[in-house]
Amino acid sequence: MHASSGQRDVLSATWTGTTLFAVLALVLAGCSSSLLTAGAPPGSLPEAPRQVQPQQQSPAPNSREHQRILAAYNGAYEDPKLEGLLNQVVASLVAASEQPEVQYRVTILNSASINAFALPSGQLYVTRGLIALADDTSELASVLSHEMSHVIARHAAMREDQARQVALVSRVVQDVLSDPETGALALAKSKIALASFSRAQEFEADGIGIGIATRAGYDAYGAVRFLTSMGRNAELKSSPGQLHIDPRAPDFLSSHPATPERIKNAQANARQFNAPGAGEHDKATYLAGIDGLVYGEDPSEGFVRGRRFLHPKLGFTFLAPEGFTLDNTAQAVLGVKESGGQALRLDVVRVPAEQPLAEYLNSGWIENIDPKSVEAVVINGLPAATATAKGDQWVFRLYAVRFGSDVYRFIFASKRTTAEIDRAFRESVGTFRRMTVAESQAAKPLHIRIVTVGPNDTVERLAGRMAIADRAVERFRVLNGLGPGERVSPGDQVKLVVE
């Protein structure tokens, strides 16, 4: 959650039940990691490797696209040791590619999300969340070679041409066709064609990338292992209360194949080059490179600890109601109750100091407020106001709390309202308060620490050492590429999440 800068009204002018349902859907959709999205920024993912000197990189990017990407992903993550590792891998891949004259520059994004993508110019982006999930250099190479393949095959430019065709069809549908059903069918067909084309690009990039990585000396099955870890991570991050939503299921209009489909395709491509186990993994070098890597949210943007959200930079904290799972995004803190039917959103806006908060609640930023419910209150010494509103499918409890020069807006939503539910919402807002200096100083990010497995260590014991209380054993397995029945052996190096 970013600090406010000027007028940061990230809500639409009016909110209805349908709109908040979309927010709830966004929370659920965000529970699964990006599946090597490669190829476009968001909204637009044998012998030992040769010791190749890092290529001469292109000048530091200053393009508008680059700046937008940095803004969306909380800036660049500065770590010279890790950057050196990525540049060495890229240099090996470039030397083995069909176009060794192309120059690439890698930017590590300061984001816990699992994503990677490329611009046509050769700018490669990989999040530190993805780097933390990868387990060796061959897995990292599979990601980077995949992105390079999009550049080599000019997928971004081709996708842009297809998108323009879809936009043209949309205008024809809106301006010419009078039959709504005929128009909807035409538009759907054009979108399906674009989606299928994009999926074909992803499969092509997988095949090209595995070939490049193998020729560079890396294990051809690095992509298989990494995609498997991504699938397990998606399953892990799915809310227990929403297990009927399968994060692996293919979306017919999705631009990327579902993970099992990608894994099957990657296995078929890898078999054309090597048997499992051939090629370099260089796990020790990789783990040494990520030792100390920040894990999870960056405290400069606030972070989640169980049901508690803390923002040391802005100096506040609050506790979500019992059963809620929180997700910190750049725009807002989102939450959903595992049993379903309840959601929350917290964001920040600027409201003139002279405008009473009760008046602000009635200013039109949300519809259908019950005028009788508007009430001025004080929360831990902070001026605030609350009200209720009704949408088509949702009932809302709203709060506006003035904190310094900003106003924090809580939106609680439920399918139905009861005295118990409303009391839980009120109690949650009642925990919104200033952090003490000691609390702000003690709020440190989590890190990856590399440890050597001892003779008495087990998966369960190692997981118990992690600074993660929720499903620690499953998270340890996913983080270390271990399947459900796999064990650790003395002398192995593994990743732990520590404070």
Shape: elongated
* Count of distinct structural domains: 3
The protein's oligomeric status is: single chain
Order of strands across the biggest sheet? 8-9-10-14-13-12-11
User: How would you state the average pLDDT, rounded?
Assistant: 77
Number of helices: 15
Into which percentage range does the β-strand content fall?
15-25%
Give the low-pLDDT segments: 5-59, 168-183, 190-197, 239-255
Main beta sheet: 7 strands, antiparallel
Notes on the protein architecture:
By secondary structure, the protein is of the alpha+beta class. The chain has three domains: 32-281, no CATH class; 304-441, Mog1/PsbP, alpha/beta/alpha sandwich (Protein Transport Mog1p, Chain A), CATH 3.40.1000.10; 445-498, Membrane-bound Lytic Murein Transglycosylase D, Chain A, CATH 3.10.350. Helices cover 38% and strands 18% of the residues. It contains 15 helices and 17 strands. It has helices at residues 17-29, 64-72, 80-96, 128-133, 137-152, 155-175, 180-215, 222-237, 259-271, 283-290, 357-361, 419-429, 437-442, 459-464, 472-479, and strands at residues 105-109, 116-118, 123-127, 294-295, 303-305, 308-311, 316-319, 324-328, 333-337, 342-349, 375-379, 382-390, 395-403, 406-414, 433-434, 446-452, 493-498. It has a seven-stranded antiparallel beta sheet, with helices on both faces. It has a four-stranded antiparallel beta sheet with strand order 5-6-7-15, with no helix packed on it. A three-stranded mixed beta sheet has the order 1-3-2. The longest helix is centred in the middle third of the chain and has 36 residues, at 180-215. Residues 5-59, 168-183, 190-197 and 239-255 have low confidence and may be disordered.
